[in-house]
Amino acid sequence: MILINGKETAANLKKEIAKKVEDRLAAGKRAPHLVAILVGNNGASMTYVANKEKACQQVGFKSSVLTYPDTITQDELIAEIQKLNNDPTVDGFIVQLPLPKHIDEQSVIESIDPSKDVDGFHSVNVGNMTLGLPCFVSATPHGIMELLKAYNIETKGKHCVILGRSNIVGRPMANLLSQKTYPGNCTVTVCHSLTPNIKDLTLQADIIIAAIGVPEFLKGDMVKEGATVIDVGITRIPADNEKGYRIVGDVAFDEVAPKCSHITPVPGGVGPMTIISLMENTLRAAEINEK
């Protein structure tokens, strides 16, 4: 069993991005600029944005965070987004989700200039991804594809079962892995809460991507010998330790790992790749915006 080390892979990619930024600066170009919009004081969102700021500093990006109270109206927020759309010094920006309930998230996402949508959520980027055209792929699917490449995991002709059909992970992963690329050329099955006999399907899978949001859902008896398992889940569950909790994924790791050829841990697997993928998208946005 090979443990897929997302921290190590992300660190290697971070060095590559930092070198490209150095080259840009040496050529008289400016550093890429990533902006994050944070509405309200959601603790998880604040932590995630802080991690993005740290990653920007490590690779030499300019980073800005715009914070707004959770009382901001949808029209006011979209007006702020339009300012970023029109700012030539901003290469890419994200609107940290979730947003307050009185704001329609999709309307906000659609107001972002697709060329600055480094989260890859705008319908133009999603549509281009579906057609195999140049686009920004959302960070978690992009990170998973990078992990598969980094570990030379064969995907051609393999059966991939995806647990979860979210627009952020499940659906884009199904699309990417069915395309005529590497990683890709998989036969893909997407399972969700209404799929009967999920175990029968996962036992057929050469590759399983677990993004269903249920702690330790995938058990050892649901995986065949030699499968590759990518665990996207992350949940805090109560534990008798100093923190009072432990972090687990959607995979019962201790049961599943012995049967796998490759498996991602939680934490330290997919998570670090998500932020580095955002950095890659921002660098690409800077290069596109110069043309």
Average pLDDT, all residues = 95
Helix content: 25-40%
The profile of the biggest β sheet is:
6 strands, parallel
DSSP E strands, number:
11
In order across it, which strands form the biggest sheet? 1-11-8-7-5-6
Corresponding CATH superfamily of the largest domain = NAD(P)-binding Rossmann-like Domain
At CATH level 2, the architecture of the largest domain is 3-Layer(aba) Sandwich
Describe this structure in words.
The chain is α/β, with parallel strands linked by helices and 291 residues long. It is built from ten helices and eleven strands. The chain folds into two domains: 88 residues, Leucine Dehydrogenase, chain A, domain 1 (Rossmann fold, 3-Layer(aba) Sandwich), CATH 3.40.50; 133 residues, Rossmann fold (3-Layer(aba) Sandwich), CATH 3.40.50.720. The strands form three sheets. It has a six-stranded parallel β-sheet with strand order 1-11-8-7-5-6. Helix 1 packs parallel to helix 10 and helix 6 packs across helix 10.
Keywords, separated by commas or semicolons:
291 residues, alpha/beta, Rossmann fold, 6-stranded parallel sheet, 3-stranded parallel sheet, 11 strands, globular
Summarize the structure.
The chain is α/β, with parallel strands linked by helices and 291 residues long.
Write the layout of secondary structure elements.
Layout: E1 2-3, H1 6-26, E2 33-39, H2 43-59, E3 62-68, H3 74-85, E4 92-95, H4 105-110, H5 123-131, H6 139-150, E5 159-163, H7 170-178, E6 187-191, H8 198-202, E7 207-210, E8 227-231, E9 235-238, E10 245-248, H9 253-256, E11 260-263, H10 270-289
Parallel strand pairs: 1-11, 2-3, 2-4, 5-6, 5-7, 7-8, 8-11
Antiparallel strand pairs: 9-10
